[in-house]
Protein: Acyl-CoA dehydrogenase, short-chain specific
Organism: Nocardia cerradoensis
Amino acid sequence: MSALISDRIDDPQVTGAWELPEEFRLLRETVRRFMDSEVRPLEQQLPHDAAGLPREQLIALQDKARRLGLWALQTPEQFGGAGLSVLGQVVVAEEAAKCRMGAFFPALGAFGGNPPNVMFKATPEQFAKYAQPIIDGTATKAYTAISEASGGSDPARAITLKAVREGDHYVLNGTKMWTSHAENADWGVVYARTGEGRHGISCFIVEKDTPGLSFRRIGVMASFAPYELYFDDAVIPAENLIGAEGKGFALASDFLIHGRILYPAGPIGIAQSALEMACSWAKDRDVFGGKLADKQGIQWMLVDSEVELRAARLLMYQAAWNADLGKDVKVDASIAKLYGTEAAFRVVDRCIQIHGALGLADELPLERWFRDLRVKRLGEGATEVQRVVVARKLLD
């Protein structure tokens, strides 16, 4: 039996299953070099809680990323993007998050070019007018507005923003909550109710200067704030309906599931950076006649963090791999999102504890990461929602 096991371990096809394919390792190294040479030097010039680069610097940084092929990575090749697989996307996202602003501005926004995924189901005319300029880099990113105050974790039931057809247009009334990038985007994708239940939700393209649309910044504990959107008799042309009326939730479902696979990549990347900082600090810090790293309590905190990050990364890779194979990944995605964001938060919390009071100071990125990762436990469906998804599968 031992000989058979040894033979399989030596088989490159078997051992390779535990490693990223070479193309993704090379991609990871390219992103890592870009972060070291281009992103972090710029970030050092910004305030601790900065939320993005000045526009001129951002454009210059994005130009450098485009020359390396690090642009529109999630956009299929048929639409002019890089068409990166889901596994490739999580590899890039993890590396791009390894900076102070990485939770909400991975690589400081350098790797842009991706319109909201639902736009890939839009008409050619809609795509050319709204999505193509984002892919070309001539327009800013757009927002997606699904959540509402009445229950953001179950949008299919909680959407109350009403859209009423009147001739050649719809009239929208109601509000949206927790919408990222809303005020700075040229347009957005908004989900509204046109009927009852899951089959009564429709998806609309809404331009920023639409009469009757206004924005309010929502202050939160994170360094990056979302917005509330108010629709007061806002008139939307019927030609801005994406897909058929009542099919909005069906359009969004697959993209929401894949988004949950990608979502933990950022927190995992941040937590990995925090762990490396904690290891370095523990080896240098003198306490009670020795190094902090000599204390078993500290060693176990570091080990627990390493174990959790390895597990989180493998769960994410598995979900991405299965998605690329075309499998049903609803449960895989929920497990990856649940474990990845929770584990990353615990790791950063431990790393702050290891640093002591310095971990709370804005001299280090740890306290900002802690606030940002607390938000990540709620985004893309709270931890409890992911548990509900997995529980339903287990008890089905």
About this structure: The domain at 143-242 is CATH 2.40.110.10 (Butyryl-CoA Dehydrogenase, subunit A; domain 2). Residues 316 and 336 are 5 Å apart (CA to CA).
